[in-house]
Amino acid sequence: MKIIAETEALPVLGAFSLRTTSEHRSMEADGWDLHVSRTYMGIDGAVGEDRVMQAGGRVPDPSEPVAVQRSPESALLRQLRDEVRKRHYSRRTEDAYSDWLDGVVRAKRPKILPVVLTRDEVNAVLRHLSGANLIAAMLMYGAGLRLLECLTLRVKDIDFGYRQITVREGKGNKDRITILPASVESRLTLHLEDVRIHFEKDLKEGCGYVRLPKALGRKYPNADHAWGWQWVFPAHRHYLDHESGIRCRHHLDESVLQRAVKEAVALAGIKKHGTCHTFRHSFATHLLEDGYDIRTIQELLGHRDVSTTMIYTHVLNRGGRGVRSPMGILG
Fold first, then answer.
1. Which regions of the chain carry the CATH code 1.10.443.10?
2. Is 303 a catalytic residue?
3. What is the separation of C-alpha 261 from the centre of its chain, rounded to a whole number of angstroms?
4. I want to staple 145 with a disulfide (CB 3.0 to 4.6 A). Which of 62, 150, 177, 299 is the partner?
5. Residue 122 and residue 279: Cα distance in Å, rounded?
6. Which of 51, 176, 225, 280 is catalytic?
7. Is the CB of residue 75 less than 8 Å from the CB of residue 83?
8. 3-state class of 274 per DSSP?
9. Annotated catalytic, 251?
10. Candidates 89, 97, 209, 312; catalytic one
């Protein structure tokens, strides 16, 4: 009877697989990663089997309490984490997906258009920023970078010769190339010179180390204290890495830039809800205004599906037809 009772909950969890294509596109435009629902679809069939195995004598994890071992929710969470790790998603993504399983209900999310600043508003915000915060904001707007994509840039990712930026392991664990704005080159060059001075000082003091992605530390033993692997926007303080026992630098914390942009928006007198991500929305919208095709913008933004990029045509209210209000032709 216990197995039947637990299995009866499966249709609720399996509701994610019933979404229509239009719902998928709407959710993705709102920032919902389609990998979430696909992951649910992939594990729904295994959940029931997993629960039966538990009830039928599956060997539980001795480190977990008995109540947790017998919980259907814990079985689903374990299956979800296994799927996420097999796909090599980041730890942030794993934690986010796990949190969403608590009290899951099927609901159609409203379609919300992104906030976009005008060019004059972007200039007004930038005028109230300075130093590394200004350069980071210029890159988010001028290259269409997400907040963490900007702050996790390494020195080797900036190519001044070809005027391009390589984004490593962006959303969806994808690499891409985007543009390096000419207007930020001089500021960025001076900034990197200052960063290198502090880096060389750190080396003399036995610091100057950074964490490398995945297993690159074993492949390139000296890369963690090489100039090319240093952060473009390093944090002001060191931290002690407990695995290696050495003092390292992390990249600038996202809250520092978020707070600076929020204050700049307020000082500029802008009533829109402007955030760091608003620069990325404005980048895409202004490129559309300038006549660039949607596929080019899709590649620069790193969207998997062009339908996600199409949201900016709705922001412009153009829809590819350049619709003008009849009010404009009156007297």
1. 119-315
2. yes
3. 18
4. 150
5. 8
6. 280
7. no
8. coil
9. no
10. 312
Which residue spans within 122-266 are E strands per DSSP? 158-159, 164-167, 176-179, 234-240, 247-251
Question: How far, in Å, CA of 149 to CA of 161, rounded?
Answer: 21
295 is catalytic: no
Convert 311-321 to b/e letters by CB count within 10 Å (16 or more is b).
bbbebeeeeee
Give the length of the chain. Answer: 331
How does pLDDT run across 277-328, given as a tens digit for each residue?
999 999 999 999 999 999 999 999 999 899 889 988 877 765 445 566 677 6
Per residue in 52-68, pLDDT (tens digit) is: 344 444 445 555 555 44
128 assigned to active site: no
Q: Give yes or no: 272 in active site.
A: no
Catalytic residue among 128, 171, 191, 281: 171
Is position 286 annotated as part of the catalytic site?
no
Catalytic site residue from 146, 191, 249, 281? 146
Residue 206's pLDDT is 86
Contacts of 184 (CB under 8 A, 6+ apart): 135, 138, 139, 142
Q: How far apart are CA 218 and CA 239, in angstroms?
A: 21
Strands 234-240 and 247-251: antiparallel
State the pTM of this model. Answer: 0.67
Give the pLDDT confidence of 212-223 residue by residue, as tens digits: 887 787 888 888
Supply the CATH classification number for the domain 119-315: 1.10.443.10
